[in-house]
Amino acid sequence: MKDQVRTENSKKAVVLLSGGLDSSTTAAIAKAEGFEIYALTFDYGQRHAREIESAMAVAESLGVQRHLVLRLDLRAIGSSALTDDIEVPLDRTEDEIGSGIPVTYVPARNAIFLSIALAYAESIGAEHIFIGVSQVDYSGYPDCRPGFIEAFERMANLATKAGVEGANFRIHTPLANLSKAEIIRQGIKLGLDYSLTWSCYKGGKKACGRCDSCKLRLAAFAQAGFSDPLEYE
Q: The pTM is what?
């Protein structure tokens, strides 16, 4: 009976789903690998709240088992262009985007999100958590680096009742070694509808085409040989 429970649990996965290009592709990959998806989206006070609508649309299109949208006000902490009255950088060059930690970094965001995803996973008996970090994120966002993910996975198995009792939590990063163009090709191969996704930091009715996220997205679609289905200003 215990082995049967472990087998059932092994096919459950909590997937962090922001509604962006990376997290949506990650969810599509988890589905293709046969996981029962429990999508987790955070309404954390981000200015690009439009992505929450995208997360809901993507979750529906993938037929997830459950989609939890959790309210978490990180504006109270601030210190980021996404959660505070700080201008979102526009029209930066590729070199500028790739150097230093940008003001769009939200303090310890992935550590916070993964901690809650871990609690959610433990509560539903899931041992797998998927997060859409990629190689493009490493230079700018310290909480996207492989070392952080590995350290969190070790912590997950030390700091939970399930881990102490024999569960084996795994943090999956299927995009870790892929470029943005490769991510898009993978998503299209899996039938993901990228018109449902959202990447713009500004969060208007149309994507701005000028923030770092928009510029990386547009360049990736061009490199992948596809047209971006989003509407831009």
A: 0.91
Nearest to 193 by CA among 59, 11, 50, 4: 59
Instruction: Record the tokens describing residue 99, joined without a space.
Output: 């150097």
Let me know: does 38 contact 64? Beta carbons within 8 Å. Answer: yes
Question: Residue 1's pLDDT is what?
Answer: 42
Contact 184/178 with Cβ under 8 angstroms?
A: no
Tell me how far apart the alpha carbons of residues 48 and 43 are, in angstroms, rounded to a whole number. 10
- The CB density around residue 20, as the number of other CB atoms within 10 Å, is 21
CATH second-level architecture of 2-224? 3-Layer(aba) Sandwich (3.40)
Instruction: Assess whether pLDDT exceeds 70 at residue 226.
Output: yes
Q: List the structure tokens of 83.
A: 């959660």
Determine the Cα–Cα distance for residues 128 and 107; give it in Å rounded to an integer: 24
Length in residues, the chain: 233
In the chain, where the domains are located: 2-224
b/e sequence 144-158, b meaning 16+ C-beta within 10 Å: bbeebbeebbebbbe
Q: Provide the residue type at 81 as one letter.
A: A
Indicate the SS3 state at residue 16: strand
pLDDT-derived band at 2, boundaries 50, 70, 90: very low
Is residue 4's pLDDT more than 50? no
On whether the CB atoms of residues 216 and 136 are closer than 8 A, the answer is yes
Write the DSSP assignment of 166-189 as a string of letters. Answer: T---EEE-TTTT--HHHHHHHHHH
Residue 177, pLDDT > 60, answer yes
